[in-house]
Amino acid sequence: MSEEKKSLNFIEQIIEEDLKLNYKKEDLKFRFPPEPNGYLHIGHASSICLNFGLGEKYNAPVNLRFDDTNPIKEEQEYVDAIKRDVEWLGFKWAKECYASDYFQQLYDWAVELIKNGYAYVDSQPSAVIAEQKGTPTEPGKNSPYRDRSVEENLELFEKMKNGETTEGQHVLRARIDMAAKNMLMRDPVMYRSLHKKHHRTGNDWMIYPLYDWAHGESDFIESISHSFCTLEFLPHRELYNWFLEKVSSPDDFKPKQREFARRNLSHTIVSKRKLLQLVEKGIVSSWDDPRMPTISGLRRRGYTPASIKKFAETIGIAKRENVIDVSLLEFCIREDLNKTAPRVMAVMDPVKLVITNYPEGEEEWLTAENNPEDELAGSREVPFSKELYIEKEDFKEEANRKFFRLTLGKEVRLKNAYIIKGEKVIKDANGEIAEIHCTYDPKSRSGSGTEESMRKVKGTLHWVSAKHAIEAEVRLYDRLFTVESPDADKEKDYLEYINPESLKTITAYLEPGLKDSQPYEQFQFQRIGYFNVDKESSSDNLIFNRTVTLRDSWANKD
């Protein structure tokens, strides 16, 4: 039992303590509350896994609640994308909720706060209100409108709601304490006027609640037991509780806000504003560009739900922020795909290999294992012929003893096929190698059981039959930024650190069995890396995205 307790993260410890004190298991209820103002990113994935993971652990409902209180930035496209991402990760929400579902209740509560002297309409510009807030060491100053009569406040607030006042003319503020040590308690703004059409409520409302007012009260309406937020909301907890106290009765079940640290990912950014800039400036093609840290981008690149969940589990939940090296995320997808991805052969930078003693016009089909990590994956047949393609880097005319690939006078094995020996090269007018001529040992076919097939050679090459090969567009994706923390230096624009090598597009030659590959299918191109079929791919125009290289190629760079 003690070992089990040690394994709990501090969030789970909070829940376990509450269950011991005054919570019942049926009281537990969680929520994931995204703003529909952009696509979800890898940081959100950790929060999704936390909240829905707790729901699974405690058999408790988890709501998906959209914090849709800012019609300027919110769109239905983002709502739809968020729902797709949560479902793709394998989670199911109990209820689909929106802060806009509660606009009338929030308004009614705000009216009660005005009547009870806890809220007032302020008619000063936002810059003046901000200046009056004071500093952490100096108290703020009361607004000249702080003591407006209840009747005047109610009248102005209703006019704000109906759009009878101009945008920015008035705000509704909570009446708390302008000398409070926590500056968030210095009469925070609850509502602002926005004459904008909302994606769900249309033009029904001309005022919109701010986060601090809408969030806790939405939790209360939904009977959320634990509201988990990132660490920057720790100072907001006092205000969260103050608002709850004003709208509830002493015996009401009230949610509890607790905070955990963000986990920032190296070589990327997760600011929605900056991610939107990347899209708008054309630096990436879309929110789901495979270089983006969005869940949609990771999916298109070939990441799996299992790999993202494993990443979230590995980094865990902490109380202190830090930067997680993106190589850990890459490790998680390598580990997952190593178990599941079929092995296939593809040549990225081809040179022709001619087997001079192979019978002219003959071909054969050789058996190739699909995945040595999965005995149930079976095998496939690949064509072999006199002319093949191999990688240019797999041949050197002259090589030292440490070069274990093909060279003149030495033997290597062709994967799943025969042992060959380099004999000579044919060069073009520019002195570049156009063809490599070799001979093969017809008795050395892999798996034939002959003495010759058992002969040990130091190198094994992948290849494709030239006359059977199919062409495909291959997109070689890499990290979008060249430095660990691209937006850490406030003196420099983060765009200066864009990696010019983040995308290279080449034509590769693949074994013919890949012609009918479907979008999002995943493969290991042997000796090269893991790839998946892009969503825009078709049998007439095959497109593969590199998910990750076989090994971490950035270790030495960093």
TrEMBL record:
Gene3D superfamilies cross-referenced by the UniProt entry: Glutamyl-trna Synthetase, Domain 2, Glutamyl-tRNA Synthetase, Domain 3, HUPs, Ribosomal Protein L25, Chain P
Record family assignment: Belongs to the class-I aminoacyl-tRNA synthetase family.
Gene Ontology biological process: glutaminyl-tRNA aminoacylation; glutamyl-tRNA aminoacylation
Main subcellular location of this protein, as a coarse class: cytoplasm
EC number(s) per entry: 6.1.1.18
Molecular functions per Gene Ontology: ATP binding; glutamine-tRNA ligase activity
Protein name (database record): Glutamine--tRNA ligase
Reaction(s) catalysed by this chain's protein: tRNA(Gln) + L-glutamine + ATP = L-glutaminyl-tRNA(Gln) + AMP + diphosphate
Residues engaged in binding ATP: E35, P36, N37, T230, V270, S271, K272
PROSITE patterns with a match to the protein in the record: AA_TRNA_LIGASE_I
Protein's UniProt keywords contain Aminoacyl-tRNA synthetase: yes
